[in-house]
Design goal:
Length: 346
């Protein structure tokens, strides 16, 4: 009998590696393949960036609390985010939708209203896609095409010892918003007449339902002549993304828990769920902020931007990846963020 390996044994990243063993690159135009936020292809002088992200009903969103317009917006933003994470600009998308007949034409128009809004805001063209039926639920997959000058492209692999680790915006909010929505769903099921009061959760709900991609940060870095040495977007949580940078760059890191930027509303909401804010910031996903490293020489410039926080520095690989607590003790950094299939991260 053939061997059977369960998906949960190897997890999402293990599966990607197993299905895509290292292959020789057949085309000179393939500059970066699997393993970064986007693939990088070189055509003449231009680097073309390509990335795909899918959203599946019941996995990435729950129709009970996800407005379709927000869903369309978010499906675009998560893709644009991967292009900004390469220091590029998104230019075109193609959209594949598979929908069951549970959805009306009007409902799908709502979805597209969100898609059009995101494309307008981020200056992106819709250039194609595919439409099919589905036996259950809604599936949306978007492929984004972007561009960057070759000498401005930033991967996950360029972090050097002594570089500063920076993060844009604040962390943990999208996760806090998700917890609120899940809680209200349970209450609503028990009592369908229940009207949730969301007024004190506005910020965290917006972070979950209508995230934004790193356009402003990437533009500001460019205007101020700062080229990050490595960069990644935070889709699965700070811890997981930091470990990706360290692995790709072959370095270690020290992250100062005290420095994590966390909004007051996020802290308050997470406390309601008995979750410490820094744990939510480390492991909660979907903030779509940018995590990047810069050379120390750029510190004076970075200080000027209130939307960017220095949260640590890069160390030699032999030092490992460490969290520094306010009491100055260290804890090994581990990824407990979102990983499809995996029950528990090793
Ligand atoms: P991100 O979180 O930045 O969207 P992922 O963690 O989804 O990236 O994917 C990591 C890398 O693996 C990317 O380079 C992505 O293109 C690649 N990848 C993901 N799934 C597959 C697959 N089924 N086949 C080939 N490559 C994949
Ligand atoms: Mg990414």
């Amino acid at each position: 009998m053939g061997q059977r390996t369960e998906l949960e044994e190897i997890g999402e990243f293990g599966l990607i590696e197993r299905l895509n063993p290292k292959q020789e690159i057949r085309n000179n135009s393939t500059i970066i393949g699997i393993g970064d936020d986007a693939a990088a292809l070189k055509y003449n002088d231009k680097i073309v960036l390509v990335s795909t992200d899918a959203m599946v009903e019941g996995v990435h969103f729950d129709m009970v609390y996800t407005p379709l317009k927000h869903l369309g917006y978010k499906a675009c933003v998560v893709n644009f985010s991967d292009i900004y994470a390469m220091n590029g600009q998104p230019k075109q998308i193609t959209i594949t939708i598979s929908s069951s007949n549970r959805y009306s034409v009007e409902a799908l128009e709502e979805l597209y209203a969100g898609i059009h809004l995101a494309c307008e805001k981020y200056n992106v063209d819709i250039v194609g896609g595919d439409t099919t039926s589905s036996v259950s639920g809604l599936f949306i997959s978007i492929t984004v095409i972007g561009e960057v000058e070759q000498d401005k492209m930033v991967g996950r692999n360029g972090a050097k010892v002594y570089d500063l680790i920076c993060v844009s915006g604040d962390l943990g909010g999208a996760y806090a918003g998700l917890l609120v929505l899940q809680r209200e769903k349970v209450t609503f099921k028990a009592n369908p007449n229940f009207q949730p009061d969301f007024s004190t959760y506005e910020y965290v709900l917006e972070r979950q339902l209508k995230p934004e991609a790193g356009k402003k940060t990437v533009e500001w870095l460019r205007e101020n002549n700062i080229l990050p040495t490595s960069m990644i977007d935070i889709s699965d949580g700070l811890a997981s993304e930091m470990l990706h940078i360290c692995k790709s760059s072959d370095v270690g890191c020290e992250l100062y828990i005290e420095k994590f930027p966390i909004d007051y509303e996020t802290t308050r909401t997470l406390e309601e769920f008995k979750i410490m804010a820094d744990v939510g910031a480390l492991n909660g996903g979907e903030d779509y902020e940018l995590l990047f490293t810069i050379d120390q020489k750029d510190f004076e410039k970075i200080k000027e931007n209130e939307n960017i926080t220095v949260i640590g520095h890069i160390t030699d690989k032999s030092m490992g990846c460490q969290l520094v607590t306010p009491q100055d003790t260290t804890i090994e950094l581990r990824a407990q963020g979102w990983n499809h299939y995996r029950k528990e991260e090793k």
